[in-house]
Amino acid sequence: MRIGQGYDVHAFGDGDHVMIGGVRVPHERGVLAHSDGDVVLHALCDAMLGALALGDIGIHFPPSDPRWKGADSRVFLRHCNELLRERGWRVGNADVTVVCERPRVGPHAPAMRALIADELGIGMDDISVKATTSERMGFTGRGEGIAAMATCLLVRA
Ligand SMILES: Nc1ccn([C@@H]2O[C@H](COP(=O)(O)O)[C@@H](O)[C@H]2O)c(=O)n1
Ligand SMILES: C[C@@]1(CO)OP(=O)(O)OP(=O)(O)OC[C@H]1O
Fold first, then answer.
1. Ligand 2 centroid to residue 34 C-alpha, Å
2. Which of 41, 96, 117, 139 is the 20 to 30 A CA-CA neighbour of 49?
């Protein structure tokens, strides 16, 4: 088995939705990012890459590369999954925590879990997405941005 962890942050900016775990969540702000700015998928990619010491998402998908401008982060997740499948591994389970005051994540968590599980070719019960506020403290607490932390365990495929 191998274990990995990932962390990602994006500041809020103009917009009317936020992509979280591949789900379009309506919000009065968007996020500032080169891609679609999906903190859940970015943190999960980093956890998967980290588990095999394969660097981080920015190494595989440089923010300077115009191909990733506005990119759907499911492309990144798919690629990371291929990298570990090629090496004989699959995600055994993963646990992601989203940190923001708003939007509310809970109502969308089942859809996020289903989408991620589908991309990884594993069961929905092996993917957890949960959320917490920062009790109004710090940058997430002031509503300046959104963060996510992910942990994943890899098992032999
Ligand atoms: N963006 C968020 C933040 C929290 N939740 C849910 O609310 C519960 C209470 O949050 P606390 O920060 O007071 O622990 C939390 O357990 C989540 O279920 C949410 O859905 N979206
Ligand atoms: C995803 C990439 C793609 O260019 O850019 P961003 O969308 O800005 O997201 P970040 O979490 O900063 O990761 C770096 C890049 O790989």
1. 6
2. 139
Give the pLDDT score at 120. 98
Mean pLDDT of the chain: 98
Parent domain of 58: 2-156
How many Å lie between the centroid of ligand 1 and the Cα of residue 131? 5
For the Cβ of 35 lying below 6 angstroms from any atom of ligand 2, the answer is yes
Q: What is the CATH number of the domain that holds 143?
A: 3.30.1330.50
Contact, 5 vs 94, CB < 8 A? no
Q: Is 64 annotated as a binding residue?
A: no
Q: Please, are residues 2 and 51 in contact by the beta-carbon 8 Å criterion?
A: yes
- Is residue 55 lining ligand 2, measured as CB closer than 6 Å? no
Q: Chain-centre distance of CA 34, in angstroms?
A: 15
pLDDT tier for residue 43 given thresholds of 50, 70 and 90: very high
Q: Is 79 in the pocket of ligand 2 (CB under 6 A)?
A: no
Q: What number is the ipTM of this complex?
A: 0.96
Q: Cα(47) to centroid of ligand 2, in Å?
A: 14
Region 37-66: mean pLDDT is: 97
> Is 63 exposed, middle or buried (CB count within 10 Å of its CB: 0-12, 13-18, 19+)?
exposed
